[in-house]
């Protein structure tokens, strides 16, 4: 067996300090445009929906306004739905799936639910196709009080006034081959631990809340997505990414304990989607469609 190559930054067994984070940040280059891909789309949605700026990330020399899109005529007697994407900026279909849901489907739920969509929580990482923010912090482990991630803190502040009224939160993610080739080795190097290679599941799966798993809700989403793309199978140990498969395409995490985005409200129904864009059996369009199908199925289940 070949030993995994040492990550090019840091000293094995020693967590990163400021110098290592600075060296890591210097390796990150802008590969796409938040303005062109996200902000221009949001601007085009303004005539039909309300748009709110809920924060700004000042990462010199760059500055990123944070926007959410919401249904008009919000009413407290309707169920409220939260959709988040791009918490990990490199997970492309989470961003574009959220925007396409608003463009193509959100109006159909007006008058039935209040909906709020934050399509790109981490724009710096979106542009650099990375998981972390500039300080090598993972926003999706940082949704907690006194968060070290500006992205997480801004979203929590947006949601705080609505938190008790949200009945559904669906957070859109991807699991990619680069998780194993880059992000998990970088995480191990950052934390000064040994990277243990793992597998990348081929297909779509969900991460429910182990504290309140709602299995029928999760399976309703799986059934809808299975019409669009394939569902990830369990490995030989009956697991997906090291967690037991509790139903086809479903694993559970303690969302709030881990500081995950899907745990930021008291919603009865919450889940994290995981699309696999590197599969030879899926296209980028299918990945976006899978995210949209998941959102629509989740809302339809709540309304049922």
Automatic annotation (TrEMBL):
InterPro entries: AstE_AspA_cat, Peptidase_M14
Keywords from the UniProt entry: Hydrolase, Metal-binding, Zinc
Location of the Peptidase M14 domain: 30-304
TM annotation in the entry: none
Origin: domain of life: Bacteria
Pfam annotation, one family: AstE_AspA_cat
Cofactor field: Zn(2+)
Family: Belongs to the peptidase M14 family.
Name assigned to this protein: M14 family metallocarboxypeptidase
Gene source species: Dyella jejuensis
């Amino acid at each position: 067996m070949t030993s995994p190559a040492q990550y090019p930054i840091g000293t094995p067994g020693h967590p990163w300090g400021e110098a290592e984070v600075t060296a890591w940040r210097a390796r990150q280059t802008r590969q796409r445009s938040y303005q062109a891909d996200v902000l221009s789309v949001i601007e085009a949605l303004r005539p039909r929906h309300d748009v709110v700026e809920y924060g700004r990330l000042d990462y010199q020399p760059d500055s990123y306004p944070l926007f959410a899109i919401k249904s008009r005529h919000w009413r407290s007697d309707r169920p409220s739905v939260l959709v988040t994407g791009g918490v990990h900026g490199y997970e492309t279909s989470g961003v574009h799936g959220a925007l396409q849901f608003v463009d193509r489907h959100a109006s159909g739920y007006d008058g039935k639910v209040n909906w709020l969509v934050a399509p790109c929580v981490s724009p710096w990482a979106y542009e650099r196709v990375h998981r972390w923010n500039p300080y090598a912090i993972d926003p999706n482990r940082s949704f907690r009080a006194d968060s070290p991630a500006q992205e997480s803190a801004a979203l929590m502040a947006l949601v705080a006034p609505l938190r008790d009224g949200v009945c559904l939160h669906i957070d859109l993610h991807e699991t990619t081959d680069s998780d194993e080739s880059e992000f998990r080795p970088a995480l191990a190097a950052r934390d000064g631990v040994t990277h243990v290679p793992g597998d990348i599941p081929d297909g779509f799966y969900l991460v429910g809340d182990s504290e309140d798993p709602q299995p029928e809700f999760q399976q309703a989403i799986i059934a809808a997505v299975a019409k669009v793309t394939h569902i990830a199978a369990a490995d030989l140990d009956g697991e997906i990414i090291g967690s037991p498969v509790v139903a086809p395409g479903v694993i559970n995490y303690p969302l709030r304990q881990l500081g995950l985005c899907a745990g930021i409200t008291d919603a009865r129904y919450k889940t994290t989607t995981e699309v696999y864009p590197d599969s030879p059996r899926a296209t980028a369009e299918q990945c976006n469609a899978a995210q949209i199908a998941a959102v629509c199925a989740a809302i339809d289940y709540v309304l049922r």
